[in-house]
Amino acid sequence: MMHDTFAALGDATRFAIVEKLLNEGELPAGNLQEVGTISPPAISRHLKVLREAGIIEQRIDKQRRMYSVRPQAVRTIGEWAMNYQEFWQKSLDRLEAALLQEGNDA
Amino acid sequence: MMHDTFAALGDATRFAIVEKLLNEGELPAGNLQEVGTISPPAISRHLKVLREAGIIEQRIDKQRRMYSVRPQAVRTIGEWAMNYQEFWQKSLDRLEAALLQEGNDA
DNA sequence: TCTTTAATTTCTATTTATGTTAATTAACGT
DNA sequence: ACGTTAATTAACATAAATAGAAATTAAAGA
């Protein structure tokens, strides 16, 4: 469900984790603590939420758990927005223009 | 902040409200109750959250409050995803392909 | 084997979010 | 003015999310 994806990204810490992974690529859980003043258990649980929402995935390397963003997750969000943009952008732009025009007239 | 936008869309009821507005255009608060079995006060507060997140806007028409999606909000989400897609999609695709190939080899 | 490192799960406390009922505000129609 | 409709705000109860400390699991390295 789309809203689970949004809910997972709706927390400031989780959003920061995802952005860090997007910018720096695959990282172990320990390195993700740098996103804020937060304990390892808290990070771990946030990672679980993101994983269950399908936004990140885990790879085990020795005693480290490596995390990375699932490309499909970002793509899905883009497609959701794009779906409405494609079909509605033009009419929305026309509506916006009309409202602006209306404002100018008044 | 981006994560406030996601947080607002992370609730099932609010997500349904936004989808209804995207599909049907501007609607009064009363009509948005149809998204589920929920009381008018609950809907009203969800609308407030969406409004404060900049996702919807309100227009007053007589005794009715008309709500609609702000085009820029959808665009912003699309652009966030697109920003990462544009810069990372190719390398991510390459990574995916490499992992698949690795899987085939094993 | 023993100690250290990495990360998670358990436990518990606290905060935040959500929902309902009741009361309030505001405008419409008679 | 009065009753009705539309929607919100207030008050309160409950559920869900988040956090840290402590305990647990698992592998690494001496």
Uncertain spans of chain A? none
Intertermini distance of chain A = 44 Å
- The helix/strand class of chain A is alpha+beta
What kind of assembly state do the chains in view correspond to? homodimer
Judging from the principal axes of the Cα atoms, what is the shape of chain A?
elongated
How many strands in all of chain A? 3
Measured by residues with Cβ under 8 Å of the partner chain's Cβ, the largest interface is:
A-B, 30 and 30 residues
Rounded Rg of chain A: 19 Å
Strand content of chain A: 5-15%
User: What is the string of helix and strand elements of chain A?
Assistant: HHEHEEH
The overall pLDDT average of chain A reads 90
Spatial order of strands in the largest sheet of chain A: 1-3-2
Main sheet attributes: strand count, strand direction, barrel closure of chain A: 3 strands, antiparallel
Number of helices of chain A: 4
Measured as a percent range, the helix fraction of chain A is 55-70%
How is this structure best described in words?
- In chain A, a hairpin with a 2-residue loop joins strand 2 (56-61) and strand 3 (64-69).
- Chain A contains 4 helices and 3 strands.
- The first copy, chain A, has a 3-stranded antiparallel beta sheet.
- Chain A has helices at residues 2-9, 12-24, 40-52, 71-105; strands at 27-28, 56-61, 64-69.
- Chain A is an alpha+beta fold and 106 residues long.
- Chain A is elongated.
